[in-house]
Amino acid sequence: MSVVETLLAGPRGRRLLLEYALTADRLSNMQSQNSFHMAVFLAAYHLDVDHGSGVVMFGPGAEEARRTVVTAEEVADRLTRAVLPEMTATAVRQAMELSMDLARYWQEPDGADVLAATDAVRGALRRVAEHVAQSPWTEWWSTDAVLTEQWAVGWSFGDSDLLDDSAVGRPAAEVLSEWSVRTAEEEERALRERPTDPTASVGGEWWSTPPTLCSSRLLADGTPAGLGFVEDGSGPARAVSRRVIVAKGARVFEVDGAQAWAQFCRRFPLDVTAQKRHEWYRTTGRAGRWVMPDWLRVAEVYDGVHLTAAGYLSAATTEIPVDDDCASVIAGWAPDSTYWFTDAARIVADDVRLWVSESNGERLDWVEDDQPPA
After folding, report:
1. Would you place residue 167 in the very low, low, confident or very high pLDDT band (cuts 50, 70, 90)?
2. Which residue would you say has higher pLDDT here, 28 or 337?
3. Which of 314, 330, 334, 311 lies closest to 142, judged by CA?
4. Tens digits of residue pLDDT in 197-208
5. Which of 10, 36, 56, 215 lies 20 to 30 Å from 141, alpha-carbon distance?
6. Averaged over 320-333, what is the pLDDT?
7. Residue among 139, 131, 38, 140 nearest 83 (CA)
């Protein structure tokens, strides 16, 4: 699949394109009443299932804005006239981070995601996708895991010691065994206690990630991909990255899109219908049987699993058909994340980089901190 088709295929890719175009419009039009930004805001407001509560309009002109209906066709028309500046590494990364931060698995897609999926806006986004695809900063999106350059990231929200040895973690086999037991128990409990109606107001664990060590490559700016690429980020103040050494010959399964994830689920199926049906119905609109990979069984065959950036952008937050009667969701992952199941990957405890977050007015940037935590 080409970069253009990858970006148009899934909600996260389309949202990346929309956010890039919005950022460009904000810089050129200063959010005027006739801007592309204002058209997206008003159209998304009326398409959002939570309009009036998820997004609240107030102040002068709010009542008129609430009555103003902007169609997807009008948004698409303004998008065709939007000026697209030259792509930079920062612009690509920022658009990716914004798309990730707005991913939702515990409720319906927001209005902007719905808007980007309409035929009219999706068609207009093709021009943006072709513009983004020309950038050399997107070339790594479809590549396999860089096993010679992997870093694990941890965060701190307070005064906890980032260099505490407990952050290194326990043996993966032990963690996976406990996860397998806990997941089976949760499925049995959900079968007994939760309603089968997928529209019922019931919450639970929505993610499909393994509970083990996760690492990623370094980006062009020298930061680990896992540092900025976080779904539903909550803005921690500090972070630490540790080098991960991967043994030669490590067996890594590459997930480069929905088809590979479906293949993985067919080979190592774990039924999680009872515990996932409510959250995954809300994010996909699908009612039925759900599966995810059984990570304990996966560990018998593979040392790790890697999700490419292209795989994330094209398939995350979507219903992925596995067989005629079941589907799955890539939920809670990040672009270029590699999860490890064996000692083929190990953290180098003394090869550490410390980071602090700084606001640039619109978003957080991570800068390396030469001073160790007190």
Report:
1. very low
2. 337
3. 311
4. 999 998 889 999
5. 36
6. 96
7. 131
Cβ neighbors of 178 (< 8 A, separation 6 or more) are none
CB of 3 within 8 A of CB of 132? yes
Query: Which letter does DSSP use for residue 360 in this model?
Result: -
Mean pLDDT of the region 117-123: 97
Confidence band (pLDDT; 50, 70, 90) for 113? very high
Task: Using alpha carbons, list the distances in angstroms from residue 328 to 157, 176, 269.
Answer: 32, 20, 10
Number of neighbouring beta carbons within 10 Å of residue 161:
13
Place of tokens 């190592």: 268
Rounded to a whole number of angstroms, the CA Rg of the chain reads: 21
| Tokens at 245, concatenated | 């050494």
Count Cβ atoms below 10 Å from residue 213 Cβ, excluding itself: 23
Q: Which residue has the higher pLDDT, 102 or 272?
A: 272
**Which residue type is seen at 197?**
D
Query: Cβ distance 312 to 331 under 8 Å?
Result: no
Q: What is the dihedral of CA 117, 120, 121, 122, to 10 degrees?
A: 60
N residues, the chain:
374
- What 44-52 contacts at long range (C-beta under 8 Å, 24+ apart), as own/partner pairs, is 44/110, 44/111, 44/112, 44/114, 44/115, 45/111, 46/70, 46/111, 47/111, 47/114, 47/115, 48/110, 48/111, 48/112, 48/114, 49/108, 49/111, 50/107, 50/108, 50/110, 51/111
Residue 366 φ then ψ, to 5°: -105, 130
The overall average pLDDT reported for the chain is: 88
| Cα 144 from Cα 277, distance rounded (Å) | 31
- Looking at the DSSP bridge assignments, the partners of residue 345 are 246
CA–CA separation, 358 and 182 (whole Å): 38
Condensed to tens digits (0 to 9), the pLDDT of residues 338-359 reads 999 999 999 998 888 888 877 6
Give the position of tokens 């407001």. Answer: 45
Q: Residue 46: phi, psi to the nearest 5?
A: -80, -20
Please give the span between the terminal C-alpha atoms of the chain, in angstroms, as a whole number.
48
For residue 224, which of 118, 93, 67 has the smallest C-alpha distance?
A: 93
- Tell me, what amino acid is at 86? E
Of 144, 97, 181, 173, which Cα lies nearest the Cα of 305? 144
